Amino acid sequence: MSYGAATHHDDHQEHPTGIMRWLTTTNHKDIGTMYLTFSLTMFMIGGAMIMAVRAELFQPGLQLMRPEFYNQLIGVHALIMIFAALMPAATGFANWMLPLQIGAPDMALPRLNNWGFWLLPPAAILLTLPFTLALFGIGDGAIATGWTFYAPLSVQGGIGVDFAIFAVHILGISSVMGSINIIVTIFNMRAPGMTMMKLPLFAWGWLITAFLLIATIPVLAGAVTMLLTDRHFGTHFFDAAGGGDPIMFQHLFWFFGHPEVYILLLPVWGFIPQILSTFARKPIYGYKAQVYSLCLIGILSVVVWAHHFFTAGMPVPALLYFMYSTMAISLPLAVLFYCWIATIWKGSMTFETPMLFAVGWIILFGIGGLTGLVLADVAADAQYHHTYFVVAHFHYTLFAGGIMGIMAGVYYWLPKMTGHMYNERLGKVHFWLTAISFNLTFIPQFFLGLAGMPRRIPDYALQFAEFNMISSIAAFALGLAQVLFVYNIITCVRGGKKATDKVWEGSNGLEWTLPSPPPYHTFNEQPVIK
Ligand code: HEM
Ligand SMILES: [Cu+2]
């Protein structure tokens, strides 16, 4: 079968220009670019929200905002960062790189792909609109329950909850469609000779992610729909007075929520080894072990959800089961860490920006993983649950493990995508500022948590003042450092030193055999993998 046969045009490069190009495009590279641009924009918006939060937390007492508004900011910050920054970034890379890496001319379902993207902006508007409406006296602002929607608070909350429910539905539809597309693409569009065991690890990471999304998003959609009917249609799913059970909401939410953290990270675990191998000039170590570990983590991730509410009250055998199953995930994860380190071991390494981010990522994500083990311990968690220890832990996994991994990917692939080299010196400055200010923001939060400071509060006891001040100052630096990132990307898109096709000395993989930037349509002739 011949892919992408030009039925309408003789010239394969022809496409609409201006706004119509972006609205109507079914081209995987254009859609990838839109996902990445959307993600970066939302990352800066979610970041600005949390800068306001850190400003409030700079000192004890209430200075800048009412507690209700504080709650709205942290919840929307989290929803934006997870659903509108991190997930779309990974999908953007999938669109750009999966077809290039597996030798396909495009994604399998291009129109679905266009729709998947264009669902995102309305969802982002739904999430943030209640802030604006409140300014005009309509409703009482955005969702104020944190990103977890826990009942009964979410049953009683204002219209922000309804907006968030619809936003989550739309985002979920987009994710499920994107996942179907990725699965079909990987199963059907691989170049001849590319067996599953020759698939780039990035594709493996995404394949498992896609299955997790299809398995768990419907559960989240069901849970928030039950919430909606509890709120407006007289049901009592989560209302104890009506025979319902608020804890059931937590089960449903985290049946989605825990796999979600792997959904955010698996694509990154896929491409980081490719970066490590490029800059260590060595093949990826333990490819098969990594594939099996990724699969095992995917499976285990759906059977551990209740570790998020050990303190809600559970029979002891259940506590033990969820503790041990959670800890079991650290075994395949340790295999991955071993492989990542072995990949660079004794390599002839150079530290261009992508490699700085990738190596820094191993260490920082490692801290995230180890502190997660602490929380998995039922006895210890009774002390740490709902403290700043948790906040620090999940920022090591989500900011360092997620966003900083994405940044490694951005620097790695940007020359391929734009055809220009970014400013290397600026990239390195960005890395060091990010790594240092990130640690200074979140290390104090570990200690605050150990000392008992609860999360989700706008005010705190005097003894926590110094560490919060350090954390806030560092957070502002972290925020400012990201301006360099945006600046570097924009200047790279607009011009700069021409990138070669191979870009990096040690790179290998099909995407590096194409010109930089790759033509609008690639692989008009199928590559054959030997
Ligand atoms: C500029 C970097 C960031 C800073 C300084 C920051 C800071 C914070 C702070 C201080 C809180 C806790 C507020 C509270 O409990 O009162 C918070 C909550 C949260 N953040 Fe971030 N954050 C950053 C980036 C991110 C990213 C990139 C993600 C995810 C991809 C993320 C996900 C979350 C989540 C899930 C919560 C929990 C919200 C809740 O309690 O429901 N954050 N953040
Ligand atoms: Cu979990």
From TrEMBL:
Q: Which domain of life is it from?
A: Bacteria
| Domain Cytochrome oxidase subunit I profile residues, every copy | 22-530
Its localization reads: Cell membrane; Membrane
Its transmembrane ranges are: 31-53, 73-96, 117-143, 163-189, 201-228, 291-310, 322-343, 355-376, 396-414, 426-447, 467-490
Known pathway: Energy metabolism; oxidative phosphorylation
For whether the record's keyword set contains Heme, the answer is yes
Q: Which InterPro entries match?
A: Cyt_c_oxase-like_su1_dom, Cyt_c_oxase-like_su1_sf, Cyt_C_Oxase_1, Cyt_c_Oxase_su1_BS, Cyt_c_oxase_su1_dom, Cyt_c_oxidase_su1_bac
**What CDD domains does the database record attribute to this sequence?**
Cyt_c_Oxidase_I
Similarity remark: Belongs to the heme-copper respiratory oxidase family.
Report what the protein is called.
Cytochrome c oxidase subunit 1
Q: Which organism is it from?
A: Methyloradius palustris
